[in-house]
């Protein structure tokens, strides 16, 4: 028996496989630290439940010894992995003694498990494939396709049933998003290769404000996002970014002024950033040096458009579509 074992997961939702790993960790260690990832994210078919809700589900399972389990949560950081690693280590340091022997447990199922190799000081406890490769993705698919809950602890199944009954609007919105994404992927099934989408996006800054849109359709309906669009085959990426601001947003600034205010462009290509498929974003940072905020109006697919003070961003972290909040933080270093 070692002193502490760390178990990192999303638990969307906690499955029977998650339970087996926690039980194995508690058999091997005096204390287990379960770190719930993807905190402070907007609800989506990939992340339907908040960190608080997932911690609540984990806290109901009778087979877990809660006197020897610490549960913490952490936001994702797709584009600043060193920050994420430091945050994990900080959580563990806060809940261990200096001389504790620490291990980390998990199953290297695919390329999303790469983080398990980044804690060399901790002994790795590798778990085999459980329940024929059971994943939380399978459970979410059944839940949104036909309201069928399977292969979760009984306490979690009851919690999910109550959650659906008490949150009809949220559940139905997630079902709609699930259907949209499934239909979107079905359109590309006959393609000889999996599609790769390219977008041109814009971060527009003026007087310590950022221009944001409210999405009007799935995926991410009603969430904040930066303006952008899929690249048209006849357009240059840079022209697409400026054109989106002029056409879809109707900003009261001429195209030449926008082009002159372009600071730099950065590519964001996390493979899981868009549930519709592989999507590579070319994000353009425009920094307008004007005396007043220019007038803006939504004239395209957006539900609305507004200037948001940069100081208010952190309070809206769970109101952003996909990885747009992380992109903004990465581009602006705020």
Ordered list of secondary-structure elements with their pairings:
Elements: E1 2-9, H1 16-28, E2 29-39, H2 51-58, E3 69-75, H3 81-94, E4 102-106, E5 123-126, H4 136-146, H5 154-166, H6 168-186, E6 196-206, E7 209-214, E8 224-225, E9 228-230, H7 237-247, H8 255-260, E10 262-268, E11 278-288, E12 304-309, H9 324-332
Structure description:
- With 334 residues, this protein is α/β, with parallel strands linked by helices.
- The chain is 31% helix and 24% strand.
- It contains nine helices and twelve strands.
- It has helices spanning 16-28, 51-58, 81-94, 136-146, 154-166, 168-186, 237-247, 255-260, 324-332, and strands at 2-9, 29-39, 69-75, 102-106, 123-126, 196-206, 209-214, 224-225, 228-230, 262-268, 278-288, 304-309.
- The strands form two sheets. Strands 6, 7, 8, 9, 10, 11 and 12 form a seven-stranded mixed β-sheet that branches.
- α2 (51-58) links the parallel β2 and β3 (69-75).
- The radius of gyration is 22 Å and the shape is globular.
- The protein starts with a strand and ends with a helix.
- The mean pLDDT is 94.
């Amino acid at each position: 028996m070692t002193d502490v074992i760390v178990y990192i997961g999303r638990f969307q939702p906690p499955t029977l496989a998650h339970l087996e790993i926690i039980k194995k960790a508690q058999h091997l260690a005096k204390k287990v630290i379960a770190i719930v990832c993807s905190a402070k994210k907007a609800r989506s078919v990939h992340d339907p439940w908040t960190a608080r809700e997932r911690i609540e589900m984990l806290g109901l399972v009778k087979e877990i010894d809660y006197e020897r389990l610490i549960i913490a949560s952490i936001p994702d950081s797709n584009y600043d992995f060193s920050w994420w690693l430091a945050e994990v280590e900080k959580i563990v340091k806060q809940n261990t003694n200096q001389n504790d022997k620490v291990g980390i447990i998990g199953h290297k199922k695919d390329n999303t498990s790469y983080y398990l190799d980044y804690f060399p000081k901790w002994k790795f406890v590798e778990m085999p494939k459980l329940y024929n490769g059971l994943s939380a993705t399978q459970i979410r698919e059944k839940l949104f396709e036909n309201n069928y809950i399977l292969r979760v602890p009984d306490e979690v199944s009851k919690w999910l049933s109550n959650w659906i009954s008490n949150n009809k609007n949220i559940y139905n919105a997630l079902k709609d998003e699930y259907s949209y994404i499934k239909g979107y992927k079905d359109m590309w099934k006959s393609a000889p290769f999996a599609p790769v989408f390219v977008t041109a996006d814009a971060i527009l800054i003026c007087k310590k404000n950022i221009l944001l849109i409210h999405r009007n359709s799935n995926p991410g309906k009603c969430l904040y996002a930066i303006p952008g669009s899929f690249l048209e085959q006849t357009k240059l990426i840079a022209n697409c970014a400026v054109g989106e601001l002029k056409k879809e947003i109707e900003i009261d600034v001429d195209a030449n002024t926008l082009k002159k205010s372009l600071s730099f462009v950065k590519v964001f290509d996390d493979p899981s950033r868009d549930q519709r498929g592989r999507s590579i974003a070319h994000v353009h940072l425009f920094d307008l040096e004007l005396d007043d905020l220019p007038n803006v109006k939504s004239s395209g697919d957006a539900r609305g458009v507004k200037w948001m003070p940069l100081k208010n961003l952190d309070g809206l972290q769970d109101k952003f579509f996909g990885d747009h909040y992380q992109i903004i933080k990465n581009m602006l270093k705020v």
